[in-house]
Amino acid sequence: MHPRLELTSIPDPATGNIIAKCPDFDILDTKAAIEAAAKSFESFRTTTGRERSKLLRKWYEAIIAHAEDLAILITLENGKTINEARGEVQYAASFVEWFSEEAPRSYGDVIPSSNPLNRIVTLNEPVGVCGLITPWNFPAAMITRKIAPALAAGCTVVCKAPGEAPLTSLAIAELAHQSGFPRGSINIITALDNTAIVGEVLTTSPVIKKLSFTGSTAIGKLLMKQSSGTVKQLSLELSGNAPFLVFEDANLDSAIEGIVASKFRGSGQTCICANRIYVQRSIYQMFLDELVGRVRKFKIGNGFDVSTTHGPLIHDRAVAKVEAQIRDAEALGAKVVIGGKRALELGPNFFQPTVIRDMTSEMKLSSEETFGPVAALFPFDSEDEVVHLASQSEVGLAGYIFSRDVHRIFRVAERLEVGMIGVNTGMISDPASPFGGVKESGFGWEGSKHGISEFQVVKTLTFGGMATSHL
Fold first, then answer.
1. Where are the active-site residues found (predicted)?
2. Residues 375, 351: contact at Cβ < 8 Å?
3. What burial letters (b/e) apply to 195-210, b meaning 16+ CB within 10 Å?
4. Cα dist. 346→15, 18, 303, 304, 316 in Å?
């Protein structure tokens, strides 16, 4: 680290105590990281898929071996409960394991030519040096979901860690280096105040051939605009506003479990959280009563307390946003059934898990991603009505359908304008499943067999003069 760099304090969201300080990298430091990645790429691109597979496997094993330490880091800097943090470490490791298995199996094609004298072959090659920008809500999983497929493809990376929670990223990258990845193949940038400057360097550098970003739609649009000057390949996983549809024939217990898993995981700070909960009117009151009963059993507090079910929000600005949305909904006629206030006795970043009823589409919570522990219930009467309501969003990341009618499930799923749908489940994340959205939730896929192709380019070879000899 250069002595001129400013240091940013990293607070524990639960206590406010400073747990570490990280350098706020600037333009020169970011360019140096890009140069290191470019130099490493010259040799790393020539490694075989099998060689990269072995390195990724060692990295996976190192993450598993240090799982508890990583979980402690996540809880310290993110605030989520230690049990959720442990689950995230396993989830993060699963992407490294998955792409260790994909790395040797990136096949090209032999394509029949329309010209009998030609033969066509395609090769999948690494796109080059990749710029990655990861969020704070999953400081372990988001970094491995991006870095692992890039390395599997033969790329090198410059990763901008989340300014609010950079420690987990640094630890995971160190484990990668200890696992044998060559110097310069993985470069981590920490920045908070200089985030915009770092982002501009990554988007405008001609050396960076691919940018992958997870974050808000507004920032995604800015990065997309900045990247246009060098015509970069982009993968953008942006804001969500997930509709959660509960039909009258749904299994009520399963739907409640789905809400608890989807809406309240991470205290509501995930991009695929149920944001608009549509419940058919005939079961609305029953569903509301059951959900409130479950929420009453929650216990908010410090994530290291084993009895805690839900931790703090990331900072006071997140709390202020949640509170503002609730007050707006109340002013327009919605009613808070439980929660709805800050838990100041615990600290400034804690907010009570909330259930609010009688929501309408005019309320801010209907059109804005909440990123907090607020279950907002909207009544509906018919299938056509709820599909229309669910589609009234500029974004389309995830959605959820709860019904026991398979015909209805397919009808509704095909009409919902989202990239991913959970059917009778609130948990849809899996390394084998493509993760991505439509509309202003972005484009590109992470995880699955598609994840590695996001970091590759197809090169076509056409061989001429291949006439068959006649004996």
1. 237
2. no
3. beebbebbbebebbbb
4. 9, 17, 12, 14, 13
H or E stretch at 110: strand 109-111
Q: What is the DSSP string of 165-182?
A: S-HHHHHHHHHHHHTTPP
* Residue 347 and residue 312 in contact, taking contact as beta carbons nearer than 8 Å: yes
Structure tokens at 410: 């397919």
**Cβ-contact 73, 138 below 8 angstroms:** no
Residue type, 458: V
Rounded to 10 deg, the angle between the 195-204 and 217-227 helix axes is 40
Take residue 101 and report the two structure tokens written for it.
Answer: 């298995």
- Residue 122 CB neighbour total at 10 angstroms: 15
Is 237 a known active-site residue? Answer: yes
Q: What pairing do the DSSP bridges indicate for beta strands 374-380 and 354-357?
A: parallel
Q: Tell me the C-alpha to C-alpha distance, in Å, between residue 5 and each of 2, 26, 149, 191.
A: 6, 8, 31, 10
Contacts of 317 (CB under 8 A, 6+ apart): none
- Greatest extent of the chain over all pairs of C-alpha atoms, in Å: 92
pLDDT tens, position by position, for the chain (471 residues)?
455 668 889 999 999 999 999 999 999 999 999 999 999 999 999 999 999 999 999 999 999 999 999 999 999 999 999 999 999 999 999 999 999 999 999 899 999 999 999 999 999 999 999 999 999 999 999 999 999 999 999 999 999 999 999 999 999 999 999 999 999 999 999 999 999 999 999 999 999 999 999 999 999 999 999 999 999 999 999 999 999 999 999 999 999 999 999 999 999 999 999 999 999 999 999 999 999 999 999 999 999 999 999 999 999 999 999 999 999 999 999 999 999 999 999 999 999 999 999 999 999 999 999 999 999 999 999 999 999 999 999 999 999 999 999 999 999 999 999 999 999 999 999 999 999 999 999 999 999 999 999 999 999 999 999 876 655
The active-site residue, picked from 102, 237, 369, 440, is 237
Q: How far apart are CA 395 and CA 368, in angstroms?
A: 10
- Which structure tokens are listed for 85? 């943090």
Return the exposure string of 322-335: e unless at least 16 CB atoms fall within 10 Å of the residue's CB, then b.
bbebbeebeeeebe
Residue-wise over 440-465: b if at least 16 C-beta within 10 A, else e?
bbbbbbbbbeebbbbbbeeeeeeeee
Which residue is it, tokens 């998955």? 98
Over its C-alpha atoms, the chain yields an Rg (Å, rounded) of: 24
